[in-house]
Every structure is written in C-alpha cells, then in structure tokens.
Amino acid sequence: MTKKEMRREFIKRRDHQTQTELDAKSEEICRKLFSLELMQQASDVLLYSSYSSEVQTDPIFNTVRRMRKRAYFPKVEDSELVYYRVDDLAELQVGYHGIMEPFMLRKAAGDWLYTAVAIIPGVCFSREGHRIGYGKGYFDRFLARYPDIFTIGIGYELQLTDHIPAEPQDQLLNAFVSEEEILVFQKEK
To answer: Where are the domains of the chain?
Structure first.
C-alpha cells in the first residue's frame, strides 16, 4: 500500500469511531502518556490542537497545566511550524486549515527545545517508529531541525500498523502511546 492509500484507509478507520469512543480512548491515552517518567519530569511539552477525529489533546493540555508545566502549540508560518507558549486554550483561534493555533504569540527562548517532550499527531504509526501525517511534512521538517527533542506519537490502536514505507525526510519517533500500549523505539544517531 502506498502512503496515499494508507492515509485514506487510516483516516477512514479513525473517523469511523463514535465521539464517545474518541473521548474515552483520548482520556486513556492521556493517562498512559503521563505514566511515563519522562512526561513526569519534563518542564516543557509541545502539543498540537486536535483536528477532526485525532486524539483529543485538551485532557493532555489540562494535565500539563495542572502539573505546572509549560505548554506550547504550533502555528504554521511560511510553511514551517513555530511553537508558542499557551497558558489557556482561549489563547487559540482558528488558523491553518481550520486547526486551532496560538494568536498570543509568546515564543519560547533559550534551551527549551533540547529538554522538551513533543507530542506528535499522525494518521497512522508503525511498530518501527514511523508515522504518516497529512502529507505536507510540517512535523518532519520541524523535527529535522531539532533532532534532540524526545518525540511521542499518540494515536488510537487502530492507527497502528507493522510497517510504513519510509522516505529519507521522514523522522522517527522515540515512542508511541495508544489506549492499549506504549511502544519505545531506538532511534539511530
């Protein structure tokens, strides 16, 4: 199956769930995510605004804030992702392709990119640490610029597959969390 075919198939699978299923699975993914020691220790968490039937990130944001960690959301600027600090979800507004983005632009300074944990969305994920997004390469380009960020893909178990055809620009994840399991990958340096 090509990436385009996989994208179509896995979006269909993801969209076939009820809102009740999406909410329950998203809550369990959040619980599993924060069972990771790295998430307990991180001061800075890069999130994303969930879109359509993606894993809902509001519970993750609420947990990040409750734990007094700093949260950052991406904004598309000149075909690149730029992360801005967000203290309240009211600081997001409809942006690129109808996805919520920060409008109170407080860019982070300093070494936060080297100690942050990035929560990464995807259409599907492999047991090898690869992911397929929507095909524009925003997250891959961002992660290529900051290879030391620890990346955790989050998705539903039905988004997991054994293999995804990878291309040279595709960035490997460090881990994947679904409502059923946590996978950790060994990234090559």
So the answer is: 1-98+107-119+144-161
Task: Please give the structure tokens belonging to residue 3.
Answer: 């990436």
Q: What is the pLDDT of residues 46-62, one digit of tens each?
A: 999 998 999 999 999 99
pLDDT for the residue numbered 96: 83
Residue 163 CB-density burial (10 A; 0-12 exposed, 13-18 middle, 19+ buried): exposed
Size of the chain in residues: 189
Contacts of 189 by beta carbon, 8 Å cutoff, 6+ apart: none
Tokens of 97: 């392709």
The verdict on domain 1-98+107-119+144-161 having CATH code 3.20.20.30 is no
Q: Are strands 182-184 and 150-154 parallel, antiparallel or unpaired?
A: unpaired
CA–CA gap between residue 32 and residue 35 (Å, rounded)? 5
Our CA angle for 137, 142, 143, nearest 5°, is 100
- Number of neighbours of residue 11 by Cβ within 10 angstroms: 18
- Residue 111 above 80 pLDDT? no
| pTM greater than 0.85 | yes
Nearest to 120 by CA among 110, 111, 129: 129
Rounded distance, CA 2 to CA 187, Å?
A: 24
